[in-house]
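Notes continue from the previous slide.

Worked example: a multi-chain complex. Inputs as given:
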Amino acid sequence: MADRPEPDLHPTGPATRAEICVLACAEAFRGDGEIMANPIGTVPVLGGRLAAATFEPDLVMTDGGALLVTNPLPLGVPDAEKAVEGWNPYRAMFDVVWSGRRHVMMGATQIDAHGNQNIAMIGDPQRPKAQLLGFRGAPGNTINHATSYWVPNHSPRVFVERVDVVTGVGYDRAAALGPRSSRFHRIPRVVSNLAVLDFETPDHTLRLASIHRGVSVDDVVAATGCALAVPDDVPETPVPTDSDLALIRDVLDPTGLREREVQA
Amino acid sequence: MSPTEVVAELSDGMTIGIGGWGSRRKPMALVREILRSDLRDLTIASYGGPDVGLLCAAGRVRRVVFAFVSLDSIPLEPHFRAARQAGSIEVTEYDEGMFLLGLQAAAWRMPFLPTRCGLGTDVMALNPDLRTVTSPYDDGEELVAMPALELDAALVHMHRGDIGGNGQYLGVDPYFDDLFCRAAKKRYLSVERLVDTDDFRSAGSPETLRINRLMTDGVVETPGGAHFTECVPDYPRDEAFQKTYAASAKSPEAWQEFRGRYLDVTEAEYLEAVGFDG
């Protein structure tokens, strides 16, 4: 990867691409109500915390560990004050997962047009070219509750025709399991650094839902290595309001970690 | 017991469960003691961190049973990656929750526990021995039959313990250490500090007594015994040393140097070399 210029970690003008992505991640949780939101990764965590601090106040949020906290925690500030409302160690997390009262936003090293996700490895499972995280909780997440995805580097290497290993269940495999086994499976959205995607087609395949400011439909199509449904009119992804921006910049991410994860 | 006595209870080819989670409250002093022994061909079952990486790098591992291996602040464990990419170890890969159910089944002496986890994913393809069961009730739902993950031995690390083999955790998450103990035939607990049983009460509430003597066969005091993993509130993760550890995966020479300096030494020399001061 070529060296990127040092990003401006303290933007003051209009919303940056990273900030648009934060709101797009927040929007994944809209309407969820009183469930646990478990965004994973810098921009998703900021999105979840933004949602909880604004339009989804009933969301249950963790501190990234075993504590449930009610205040909008700043990212990357280890000694930040925590308003603790509950205790949720890993043991209890599986109770939440299996109860279905949870919406996770995970990363995806690879994802296909049906929403099958791979975070385990690239290449031959017996001797992978690249060993990645492993299955982690992806099988349990995807079969039990809503799972959205975050892709900070939208490219044909991520959006692939076929994932090397299926760690998270996609819609085609869910359908093959039958209605009973797949009744809790749902992939509300995929947010990337270029666009918001969903599976709102008749056969639940990848669809372009909106494009971020400064991105063209052609950019997204060129960066997508799998089939992508493109509606006639693709709206622009909503941009954070001034008060959203103040929350993101002053409270949730005072050190600008988001600008390191996403650059336009 | 001493760490040497604990490791003397282990033998080649055993399936050993290791407590903690990622790079958090791992029984690292016991892992280091394994590295000083000639134990080999081990099957390691772990919510994996540097315990798995060190044992892989030292060539002691035949198989890893895992859902992830991570250093947390360094997401991918470099020594584990190297072993996988060299094809030098076998693996059994599960979902994190399946792993829990495997331990629970072993602890309850059940052959399996049913779960939805794994359905529709390549967990099934990569574990051709995995079976499904059909609910005998009217729903008829097909579920994965997660087999018992029976351990020959379990190694866990707690903050406090007593000579009888009771263990107390003082951090914010007990992880699955009790379950590892309940799933194993031989159970060994290392602790930051051995205390009088009466002292447990002043250190924490009754629910911090996560391990009791029904669940252990031996206890050993190992101050710094979780280093360099996190053992809050006694000490945080040693991020600087974890970076040094991760960098030792860069080349055989780097590993040899790391090994000579930090592993082919006594525990006291290790703690001095890393500057551990509690």
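Summary box: Chain A touches chain B through 46 residues (CB under 8 Å). The domain at 17-254 of chain A is CATH 3.40.1080.10 (Glutaconate Coenzyme A-transferase).
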